[in-house]
Design brief:
Layout lengths: L1 E4 L5 E4 L3 E5 L4 E5 L6 E3 L4 E6 L16 H11 L7 E6 L7 E7 L2 E9 L5 E2 L9 E2 L2 E2 L7 E7 L2 E2 L1 H21 L13 E2 L3 E7 L5 E2 L7 H22 L2 H4 L3 H5 L6 H12 L6 H13 L1 H18 L5 H11 L6 H9 L6 H22 L1
Parallel strand pairs: 6-7, 13-16, 14-17
Antiparallel strand pairs: 1-2, 2-3, 3-6, 4-5, 4-16, 8-9, 9-13, 10-15, 11-12
Helix pairs in contact: 2-3, 6-11, 8-9, 8-11, 9-10, 10-11
Length: about 375
């Protein structure tokens, strides 16, 4: 168990089950929690709870018919007062919680973050099967980025709300910088479907701040602190440093390309049998670690993004794609066949380019 006295006197306690902040005075809290969420001035305790604590299967199960009832059950397990507590839950492991601090002049900030995104990362607007009937969730996935941001300054209600939006912006910037993929589309993730944020300010503080915009120090430092802490939490929980460096397979996973799909295409190209799987695996490991190839497929993937975002013309996109992967034998013929299929709609070309990448990588592996 670890304990830290936060600026302003509140106490943060972390163990493998939860991170709990006991408030020592009058605090204003803005929370996305199902229990006592919204803006409150009467809370005593905040928490982030690991749903997989003590479970060998690392599965999450609803403890009540509604999300509010579920969180209330967690509060009771933690021995807290459900009338004066608010909190978040996650499938991330609490042993990987990241606590970072920063400040400027007359205020200090503390970020307490857990992050898991390997099965629930999504891009805003991705298709979903979730819905709610009378407070009851119909379907759920594990994995969450939970952020608690604590400050010893007194923030106005407007500044509190602006700070919460900054936390969300910082989270998305963090995911952008590690190229985290969506698990539900071929886009880059902007978060998960279950993320939560709690912002805490000190109503007893003589320092009142009214502007949390990113042109002010409060906004700048909030954004930088939360972004870096989210990245640290992703690295601790999922080893997300692989997205920034070291794995071609990580970079192309959002396009449905993985060891099995590449193996299937490889077998078609080489007319080989399962006996060559060891050779294929050896080649794939070498290619997946090649920094030059990682860079090229990353740029190729971003071309697909630009195409979907309507920031690139279809002909120009295909021409640039040809230049990026021209080092792969036979790819020029595939590009020519694709260009002869014009006119293609943007989404059609985006899908075709993903199939082309699978074939190109398989050609590269078979030619080694």
């Amino acid at each position: 168990m670890k304990q830290l006295t936060l600026p302003g006197g509140d106490i943060l306690t972390c163990d493998d089950r939860s991170a709990i902040i006991k408030l020592s005075g009058l605090r204003r809290v803005l929370s996305t929690s199902f229990l006592n969420g919204g803006m409150r001035d009467d809370l005593h305790t905040l928490f982030n709870y690991s749903e997989v604590y003590g479970r060998e299967d690392e599965c999450c199960e609803m403890r009540a018919p509604t999300c509010e009832g579920h969180i209330r059950s967690i509060v009771e397990e933690l021995g807290l007062n459900p009338n004066y507590s608010t909190g978040l839950s996650t499938a991330a492991k609490m042993k990987y919680v990241q606590v970072e601090q920063a400040g400027y002049d007359d205020f200090k900030l503390t970020a307490v973050v857990t992050a898991g995104l390997d099965v629930s990362g999504n891009r805003i607007g991705d298709p979903t099967e979730w819905h709610e009937k009378k407070g009851m969730p119909v379907r759920a996935h594990a994995g969450t980025i939970n952020i608690i941001l604590h400050t010893d300054a007194c923030l106005t209600r407007g500044a509190m709300t602006r700070t919460l939006t900054l936390c969300s912006e910082a989270k998305t910037a963090a995911l952008q910088e590690v190229l985290a993929p969506s698990c539900f589309s071929d886009g880059l993730a902007t978060g998960s479907g279950t993320d939560g944020i709690i912002v805490v300010s000190n109503l007893d503080s003589p320092v009142e701040l009214t502007n949390a915009g990113s042109h002010f120090k409060l906004g700048q430092i909030t954004g930088d602190l939360v972004k870096n802490t989210v990245i640290a939490a992703l690295v601790a929980e999922n080893g997300f440093e692989a997205y920034a460096r070291g794995s071609m397979l990580k970079r192309v996973s959002r396009f449905g390309l993985n060891e099995e799909t590449l193996w299937a295409e490889y077998c078609i190209l080489t007319e080989t049998g399962e006996t060559d799987r060891d050779l294929f695996n050896s080649r794939l490991r070498r290619v997946s670690r090649d920094e030059s190839i990682i860079l090229k497929v990353t740029l190729y993937g971003h071309l697909v993004d630009l195409l979907r975002w309507r920031l690139a013309d279809t002909h120009d996109t295909l021409e640039a794609a040809s230049e990026i992967i021209s080092f792969i034998p036979g790819v020029d013929k595939d590009i020519l066949l694709l260009s002869n299929s014009f006119p293609l709609e943007r989404d059609e070309l985006a899908v075709a380019m993903q199939l082309l990448l699978k074939r190109a990588l398989s050609r590269l592996l078979s030619a080694m």
